[in-house]
Design brief:
- The chain is an alpha/beta fold and 205 residues long.
- It has a single domain, classed as Flavodoxin domain (Rossmann fold, 3-Layer(aba) Sandwich), CATH 3.40.50.360.
- Helices cover 25% and strands 15% of the residues.
- The protein contains six helices and five strands, in the order βαββααβαβαα.
- It has helices at residues 25-33, 78-84, 87-90, 110-119, 133-149, 169-172, and strands at residues 14-18, 40-44, 60-65, 93-100, 123-128.
- Strands 2-1-3-4-5 form a five-stranded parallel β-sheet, sandwiched between helices.
- Strand 4 (93-100), helix 4 (110-119) and strand 5 form a beta-alpha-beta unit.
- Mean pLDDT is 81; it is low at 154-202.
- It binds flavin mononucleotide.
């Protein structure tokens, strides 16, 4: 198991895994959220192939910038695909937060849609570039609440709905990207994705 780049302070409640390219927008966002103060370990997916692989063995929410310039096949950065296509990492994903640039129109934050669909986890939040102070506040509070209330370790029977539609941004500070009825869902307190469910026989990310 890899070490977090920033370790949880006080009571450890969960983890965030993020990727950021050389432009470091997502890194700036994550660092300025001070998630360690909410009891979250922060792990970073390595940028370069020669860097040691990241192995995470605890429930986490992944935070990912979108790439590909509108090509869905390239929206999820290859480093993130590699990380998530390792079943040992993938079994612990519990949600996704995506970033992007609104200049890309319909492809804005498309990586979140793809990961949510492939890994069967909620698309919890999106933000642009390095985010705003409000984004930081919402993500910090929303993740703290999510990990505090969700029973992340309890397996649920196959086929049981584990999430509810929740498009009220004020509820958790977590919201869906699009105002349509696409199946982007937020987690209800006390409900969780079954450990291992995200790995089953899903397609690669
Ligand atoms: C080549 C390239 C392609 C991009 N494609 C998209 C895209 O399809 N959708 C989107 O929302 N943002 C896109 N972006 C914007 C990035 O997601 C955004 O700049 C993000 O903050 C980068 O995060 P990072 O600096 O942590 O890597 C693209 C950026 C670049 C440089």
């Amino acid at each position: 198991m890899s070490e977090p780049i920033v370790a949880a302070k006080g009571k450890h409640v969960g983890a965030v895994v993020f990727f950021s390219s050389a432009s470091r927008n997502t890194e700036r966002f994550i660092i300025s959220c001070h998630l360690e103060d909410e009891g979250l370990n922060v792990y970073r997916i390595p940028l370069k192939p020669r860097d040691p692989a990241l192995d995470v063995r605890e429930p986490y929410v992944i935070v990912v910038p979108t790439y590909g310039g509108g090509n869905p096949k390239k929206a999820v950065p290859p480093q993130v695909r590699k990380f998530l296509n390792d079943p040992d990492n993938r079994q612990y994903i519990r949600g996704v937060i995506a970033s992007g640039n609104t200049n890309f129109g319909d492809a804005f934050c498309a990586a979140g849609d793809i990961i949510a669909a492939k890994c069967h986890v909620p698309f919890m939040y999106y933000f642009e570039l390095m985010g705003t102070p409000e984004d930081r506040r919402k993500v910090r509070a929303g993740l703290a609440d999510f990990f505090a209330k969700a029973d992340l370790q309890t397996p649920q029977p196959t086929g049981t709905p584990t999430r509810v539609i929740n498009r009220t941004p004020a509820t958790l500070g977590l919201l869906s990207k699009t105002p349509t009825d696409v199946p982007i869902r937020a987690v209800q307190a006390g409900q969780a994705v079954q450990a291992g469910q995200a790995t089953s026989t899903q397609d690669g990310v």
